[in-house]
Amino acid sequence: MPRPEVVELLIPIDDESSPELSIVIPAMDEELTISDFLAWCREGLERAGIRGEILIVDSSADRTPELALALGARVLRVPKRGLGRAYIDAIPYIRGRWVLMGDADCTYDFRQLGEFVDALRSGADFVMGSRWKGSIEKGAMPPHHQYFGTPFTTWILNRVYSTHFTDIHCGMRAMTLDSLISMDIQSQSWEYASEIVIKSILLDLQTTEVPVHFLKDREGRVSHHKRMGWFSPFQAAWINLRAMFVYGSDFFLLWPGAILFIIGFLLTGATTIGPVDLGIVELSLSSQFLGVILAIMGLQSVLLGCTSRTFFDYTGRRSAPIARLFPYNRTVAIAFAVFVAGIAMCVPLVVTFISNDLSLPAVGIENHLALSGLFLVASGFLLFVFTLVINGALAAHAERLQLRQRSVTR
């Protein structure tokens, strides 16, 4: 069957009329495994005692959609546009209140889906499968994935977001439909996996992990990474890291920026009225230059970190402290006062320059005062511009939250 050019939903004769659980599975050329996979899903649903539908999001050129439809699955035919896009395309067609994701290659044992259902029934919003809490069949993962790639990227995400996941790349995961809609997935490719985990954190979802058993590929099946070439796993790792770093950019800005600012501010302040002798070290104008640079870099990083937190706040919890800390009127007044104070500190050097026939004598206290003054001028300007941006971002963020809440309610 040729790959589709438009989205088309195919409904089986024995379609489930009122599913509680929707098993949503992207598939591309899985003719070898699709029949066994669907049998595993049926067995898993029966064991869990839950009514369910199986929605295959298909972009195959082989007999995968025909077999799936004949075996009772709904088939959403979509163009080949990426793994993340497959889930985006599926959302309008999901009928269950809960969603279970995975692969159609029989590497995840869907006969054991009951643990996901139990967690959802117990109130979890997001249930992450973990191969490290379950088992990994010998030969199921390349050694560099099993012992380096997945543990390393999981460790990075846990550090950036202060979480405790054990396997962020597990393809078998479940969530409420409301949670999936709230995530507003944007990723078109492999990075959807990290985006979903990250947004489960940013949305403050009730999250848990359950063990899964990861099996090696069937004889004769070639994984999608191998089909796409040797570079595909590395590309997947890179775009997943990109998602982690972009959504968590405040991690790289706030605390590092605060440390830079404190160091720079102390250097600048200590030398504002002249050199400081610390025994074996003398802090002079050169030290003050370094301090000004570090302080401005640090201040800019902190302000950008606050902006980033506002952009990627999906609940209002992360941006509320920023709104309280930087109210418009007070912050603009502080920025103006800092700017004027900086100008005032530059006046003695300007007077000296004019009184010496537009030239400067040897370095004196006026130079130190002026350099600290320029730091205050730059800081006041940065704070003013940030106040404009952050208040606009907070207003847009409040509107976005209202729209999201309305869409979820509908």
Task: Write up this protein.
With 410 residues, this protein is α/β, with parallel strands linked by helices. The protein has 2 domains: 8-247, Alpha-Beta Complex (Spore Coat Polysaccharide Biosynthesis Protein SpsA, Chain A), CATH 3.90.550.10; 250-409, no CATH class. 53% of the residues lie in helices and 13% in strands. The protein has 14 helices and 10 strands. Strands 1-4-3-2-5-7-6-8 form an 8-stranded mixed β-sheet, with helices on both faces. Strands 9-10 form a two-stranded antiparallel sheet. Helix 5 (143-161) packs parallel to helix 9, helix 10 runs antiparallel to helix 11 and helix 11 runs parallel beside helix 14 (365-409). It is elongated. The mean pLDDT is 90.
Question: What are the key terms here?
Answer:
14 helices; 2 domains; Spore Coat Polysaccharide Biosynthesis Protein SpsA, Chain A; 10 strands; 8-stranded mixed β-sheet; 410 residues; two-stranded antiparallel sheet; alpha/beta
Given as residue ranges, the uncertain stretches (5+ residues, pLDDT < 50) are none
Number of helical segments with 4 or more residues: 14
Termini separation = 37 Å
Following the backbone from N to C, one meets helices and strands in this order, namely EEHEHEHEHEHEHHEHHHEEHHHH
Short note summarizing the structure:
The chain is built from 14 helices and 10 strands. The protein is an alpha/beta fold and 410 residues long.
